[in-house]
Specification:
By secondary structure, the chain is mainly beta. It has six helices and 88 strands. It has a six-stranded antiparallel β-sheet with strand order 54-55-56-57-58-59, with no helix packed on it. The protein has a six-stranded antiparallel β-sheet with strand order 83-84-85-86-87-88, with no helix packed on it. A four-stranded antiparallel β-sheet has the order 4-5-6-7, with no helix packed on it.
Length: 961
């Protein structure tokens, strides 16, 4: 037997040890006219792999199981003369022999499984059911596919495409299988071992679920309700929301470049673009390549040379020669190129190229404004984002003297080499600043606005660095005018962050330009200004604070008050410190005493809403804020000071308006490993505490919470969370692709989880008391039927061969195999210098360096002769291979049954099944034949121990002539 054949058999047996899957059961072995194919001889030599004792279904008599062996014979439902005698095995059917070779169940079934725990699967009229040992139908045939029953009294069946667990009465039990299950492997033992693999699932933000099929593989979302997908042949297309092909699968690839509104589709003969509605753009143009050029253009290589320029929507703008294409340079989103000596440019939004002139060079750009110089390096023109070409007579008179350009709030500010401000240009090429504003800006310090709002001021004017001249503080307004006053020494913006570390104020998200407020500093105090720089009806103040949540703190004449944007003021009690934390709400300290607690005060209603009790109150967002009563007493409160999340945590961090991430209190480990959990805005915990917890949000609004060990998908409204264990997620527009890892666990006899599923498969339960081997991140260990660890094993990869009293670990030391054996307490019982099998009937098998095999006893002492192959011992006999043929060796290693067979099973109940090429037999433990099946007169025929024909009862007429 070759090493490859040994390897293939071991893999097959390892799969069988988990239980036969549905797909395997749906395809029971097809009939053959010979009992053993000579080409399969080497692969059959090891059908009783020592470490699991499972048998392949080979030979004209299948292996004995529960004292029954499946056999294919002329159908009992057919007249014998109707059975063809051409060795085709037509009009044959499956039945069962007992261990003495007698026909226990007449041949009548289309296909059968083996008996397990008193029942065997049979196919009758295209449907599967189960019979008992007498051939009586125990579960009616109504299933599309089935598995064997296992010790726990469970089997897996498929009914109308849905997988179910059933009990021995055919009743559906348990709820561990649903539409997401792809394959199920149900194993032996009590509780029953089960392994589940899942189909790729697609879930919409409305909760609808769909599953991948063999014909369609979803790759990514595209647009609102489209999907890039591949068919069974690997060709790409677009599916709509009903999974119908919007763009037929005709491309070798469809991908969406980053930040592009279009997808790139690569076909056999051309490349095209597809928009978010599924329209194919450029089909039939013969583009050989399409390359994105900046954010506004595509370049398409034409089949006969040259290139086509397309806009961002894929519409053609013009063609380039190879030389023109080589000259293109991108400045911002403006594409500049040369046609001979003439410079031209394509500007986003314009259908035709602009002719700029000759002798020009694009010198620099700020955003999409491009400055050009002539051959003498003088400024010759400026091209704006909307395609205004300021050059020659259309250029301002000062343009040639420009030395410096700066982009501020979408406007281009132009200055000379001495710092003189010439003006600012908008995207249409218009000069913005009026004469008085331009005069006011000369020599002044120009500062950017903290908030860039449409229609808002262009900038702040302040005293110049030289502090010379008559420059005053002021506002440059959107219409190009200036608001200034000789008494103003500084303009202070009251909205927007002053630096990147400032606390976020959500109220600025909806702020309009007219709502902006400023403070003008004068020698006599601060004056409140509106968005246009006009003084408001509020007396001068000693201090005007920034607006937060629509309100600002003011102070004058020893009194602190609050104002709104209209300048209306609200009184405050005589507190030591107040800060606006929500609309109409301040947090306050009564005194300056160290440790004085914070309270909450509603200044619009003029009443205290939460008495001073907090060591800390953060700014409110969406009506909630983090608050603390002290160390490890952090929670979340509402605007009445009531706890939404109890103060029982080390910390709390806002994820969104619906979620909080809280950290566990009283943690003794490193802080970076401190467990965290996700809690919604109603205070409901959505996850358990996990180290390394984080939360992200998908495009469809759903949240993903994940740690190193677990993952949850949280609904967009954050009302509930689905524990997805170790599933992977891919956002696809309004859908989410979910790829779940295989799960392995143990079921009770009612089909419920007795030991919760996990990512690692354990062995079947065996022995008394029942134990299973589980190897995971916690190491190798033996567990009881409740999943509790009863023994921990030394480090290494352990296995537990079925029926072996000891567990096995194999490794290498200095290039030599070492096999370790431990008992069910974890105690080392034997160490074997070599590659050893599991134990059976007091013997293991050791593979020698030359590939031959020999039995060893429980003292690691070699026992008996050497064989080419030696199987596990059962009923005192072990399959042995000598010279390419199989026989049986006894307890002393002597050949008790001569090696003359191509196929042999282990003994069970003092019986074994063996085969030559043309005949299969049941043998007793003395090697005597008790029954045989072979081909006679072109049909399968059963004979008894005395060579009497047992089936068919009579031969066809043409065989009797």
């Amino acid at each position: 037997m070759t090493s490859r054949a040994f390897h293939a058999t071991r893999i097959a047996c390892a799969v069988a040890a988990l239980g036969v899957s549905l797909s395997a059961h749906a395809q029971y072995r097809q009939a053959r006219n010979t009992c053993v194919d000579a080409s399969e001889v080497s692969a059959m030599a090891m059908v009783d792999h020592r470490d699991d004792n499972r048998n392949a279904a080979l030979g004209c008599i299948r292996p004995l199981s529960d004292n029954r062996a499946a056999v294919l014979l002329p159908s009992a439902l057919e007249e014998i003369d109707r059975v063809p005698t051409d060795e085709s095995l037509r009009r044959h059917a499956w039945g069962f022999l007992d261990s003495n070779g007698k026909l226990a169940i007449n041949p009548q079934f289309e296909a059968v499984g083996d008996f397990h725990h008193g029942l065997a699967a049979v196919r009758w009229k295209g449907k599967w059911g189960y019979i008992d040992a007498k051939g009586k139908m125990a579960v009616p045939p109504r299933y599309d596919s089935v598995s064997d029953f296992v010790e726990a009294g469970l089997a897996v069946v498929t009914l109308d495409g849905s997988r179910q667990l059933i009990d021995r009465g055919g009743r559906a039990v348990g709820d561990v299988l649903d539409a997401s299950v792809q394959t199920v492997e149900l194993g032996e033992g009590k509780p029953a071992q089960i392994s589940i693999s899942y189909r790729e699932e697609y879930r919409s933000n409305s909760g609808e679920r769909r599953y991948a099929t063999d014909d369609i593989r979803i790759l990514s979302g595209y647009g609102a309700d489209l999907f890039i997908a591949a068919d069974a042949h690997g060709m790409y297309g677009l599916l709509d929301s009903d999974w119908n092909w919007r763009v037929k699968p005709q491309y070798s690839d469809i991908s969406r470049p980053s930040k592009s509104a279009l997808a790139l589709a690569v076909g056999d003969n051309e490349v095209a673009l597809i928009d978010a509605s599924g329209n194919v753009i450029g089909q039939g143009k013969g583009y050989q390549r399409l390359i994105r050029v900046g954010q506004a253009f595509w370049s398409g290589q034409l089949p006969r040379g040259g290139y086509a320029l397309l806009d961002a929507a894929g519409q053609p703008l013009g063609n380039f020669t190879d030389a023109e294409a080589q000259s293109t340079v991108l400045h911002g989103n403006t594409l500049v190129y040369a046609t001979g000596d003439t410079l031209k440019a394509y500007v986003p939004g314009r259908a035709e190229a602009l002719t700029l002139g000759t002798g020009l060079t694009a010198a620099e750009n700020e955003g999409d404004y491009v400055l050009f110089r002539d051959g003498a390096q003088r400024v010759a023109g400026i091209l704006t984002p909307k395609g205004a070409w300021l050059h020659g007579d259309t250029a301002p008179s000062w343009l040639a003297n420009v030395d410096r350009i700066v982009l501020r709030q979408g406007k281009l500010w132009l200055s000379g080499n001495d710092g003189e401000l010439f003006n600012a240009l908008d995207a249409d090429g218009r000069e913005i600043l009026q004469a008085d504003a331009l005069a006011a800006a000369q020599g002044s310090q120009l500062r950017d606005m903290p908030l860039d709002l449409p229609g808002g001021p262009l900038g702040l004017l302040g005293q110049g660095y030289c502090q010379c001249g008559d420059s005053n503080a002021g506002l440059l307004l959107a219409d190009g005018s200036v608001a200034t006053d000789k008494t103003w020494t500084e303009i202070v913006p009251l909205d927007g962050p002053k630096d990147e570390y400032a606390a976020r104020d959500d109220s600025t998200d909806t702020l309009t330009a007219d709502q902006l407020r400023f403070a003008a500093q004068t020698e006599d105090g601060m004056q409140l200004l509106d968005a246009h720089g006009k003084p408001m009806d509020l007396p001068l103040q000693q201090h005007i604070g920034d607006f937060r949540h629509g309100y600002a703190l003011i102070y004058a004449k020893g009194e602190a008050r609050i104002i709104d944007r209209a300048g209306k003021s609200y009184a405050l009690p005589d507190y030591f410190e107040t800060e606006v934390v929500a609309p109409g709400l301040v947090r306050y300290l009564k005194t300056a005493a160290e440790g004085d607690p914070w309270g909450l005060y509603d200044f619009i209603a003029g009443k205290e809403v939460a008495a001073p009790a907090f060591q800390f109150i953060d700014v409110f967002q969406d009506g909630q804020a983090v608050a603390s009563l002290g160390a490890d007493k952090v929670g979340v409160i509402d605007q009445q000071g009531k706890w939404i999340v109890p103060p029982a945590h080390h910390g709390a961090k806002r994820v969104s308006d619906k979620l909080w991430l809280v950290s566990q209190a009283a943690w003794k480990g490193d802080d970076y490993q401190r467990p965290q959990a996700v809690i919604n805005a109603s205070g409901h915990a959505l996850t358990t505490f996990q180290s390394g917890m984080d939360v992200s949000r998908a495009d469809d609004g759903a949240y993903l919470a994940y740690s190193q060990k677990q993952r949850w998908m949280i609904s967009p409204d954050a009302s509930d969370a689905l524990d997805m264990k170790d599933a992977g997620y891919t956002p696809m527009g309004s859908w989410m692709a979910i790829r779940r890892a295989n799960r392995h666990g143990y079921l009770d006899s009612a089909g419920r989880w007795q030991i919760a599923p996990g990512p690692v498969a354990g062995t079947p339960f065996q022995g008394k008391p029942a134990r299973a081997l589980l190897s995971d991140d916690d190491g190798a260990r033996l567990i009881d039927e409740h999943g509790k660890t009863v023994a921990s094993l030394p480090a290494g990869e352990w296995s537990w061969p079925a029926g072996s009293p000891w567990l096995v670990r194999r490794d290498q030391q200095q290039g030599k195999h070492i096999t370790h054996y431990v008992d069910l307490t974890g105690k080392t019982r034997m160490t074997l210098a070599g590659f050893g099998s599991g134990f059976s009937e007091g013997r293991a098998v050791m593979t020698l360096p030359n590939g031959t095999e020999r039995a060893v006893n429980d003292k690691a002492v070699a026992d008996g002769p050497v064989f080419d192959y030696l199987g596990a011992r059962h009923d005192g006999l072990a399959v042995a291979r000598v010279g390419g043929l199989l026989g049986y060796a006894d307890g002393q290693g002597k050949l008790a049954i001569a090696p003359v067979y191509l196929y042999a099973t282990p003994f069970s109940g003092q019986r074994a099944v063996v085969s030559t090429r043309d005949m299969s037999m049941i043998l007793d433990n003395q090697g005597a034949m008790v029954a045989r099946v072979g081909m006679e007169c072109g049909i399968r025929t059963l004979y008894g121990a005395y060579n009497q024909r047992l089936w068919p009862l009579s031969m066809p007429q043409r065989c009797r002539q």
